[in-house]
Structure formats: C-alpha cells, structure tokens
Amino acid sequence: YQRRVHGDRLIGLLRFLLFLKMMCGGVGNVKPGDDTARGVVAAALPSLLTKVPELEGVDYEVHSYATQVVAGTNFFVKVIFKQADGDRVLHLRLYRGFPSSGSAVTLNHYQDNKNVEEVISSFSC
User: Fold this and answer.
1) Where on the phi/psi map is residue 108: left (φ > 0), alpha (ψ -120 to 50), or beta?
2) pLDDT per position in the chain (125 positions), as tens?
3) Do 14 and 52 form a contact (C-beta atoms < 8 A)?
C-alpha cells in the first residue's frame, strides 16, 4: 500500500514539474502570425516607429512568432515590412504583462536586416 501511495505521489510530482516546464521559462514553438500576435505588434508599433521612423506608413505582415511565459509574456515576432524597394524583415521582442498589471505591451528590443528564412527565436536585449 505504501509503495503505491509513494509511487502515486511521485507520479503527481513529475506531472507537476512537467507542467511547470511547459508553462514557464521556455520559449514555445513558432506559430504563424495570428490575431494575438497582430494585436501585440499593433500595440507596440508606435514605440518601434520612434526607433525606426522610416517605417512610418509602411504596410506590414506578422509572419510568425513564439512566446515565453515569464512574469507576463515575451513575444518574439517576425514582421515583414512591405517597402517599395523590397521587403524589410525585423524580429521584435515584445513584452505583455498579465491582466492584473494592466496588460501593457512594450517593445524590449528589435533586430533589423533579418531575412524571411531566419527562424524567430529568443534573443536578449
């Protein structure tokens, strides 16, 4: 009886640890751009345009993104700006707080001169 109880506790603990690993810290799989990513990029666009003003008024497409749960959510987003002289690809690192903190979106960092084939992944500020 005790072995089964201890075994059940161990299995429960392992499941919990697996859940934590999936929920916090690691960057998730890359997903195609969707309404969530488009909303986060739209919220951060004014900040980006203060740093890269030549993109003002340029159409863009949210290509793909990955997320990382921290004390909020980091978004690593590949954005393609459709310029007349060719596409310009940027990788954005955006942060959105939890609803309890107002869910504000901030631009933490961006990488310029990327290409569409480069996989979006975590990068530091």
Assistant:
1) alpha
2) 445 545 566 566 555 554 444 445 678 899 999 999 999 999 999 999 999 999 999 999 999 999 998 888 999 999 999 999 999 999 999 999 987 777 789 999 999 999 999 988 877 76
3) no
- How far is the CA of 85 from the CAs of 53, 90, 101, in angstroms? 16, 16, 41
Q: Do 107 and 48 touch, CB atoms closer than 8 A?
A: yes
Diameter of the chain measured on Cα atoms: 73
Q: Which amino acid is at 87?
A: D
CB within 8 Å of 67: residues ≥ 6 apart = 27, 28, 73, 74, 75, 76
Q: How far apart are CA 24 and CA 9, in angstroms?
A: 22
Which pTM does this prediction carry?
0.77
CA distance 78 to 94: 11
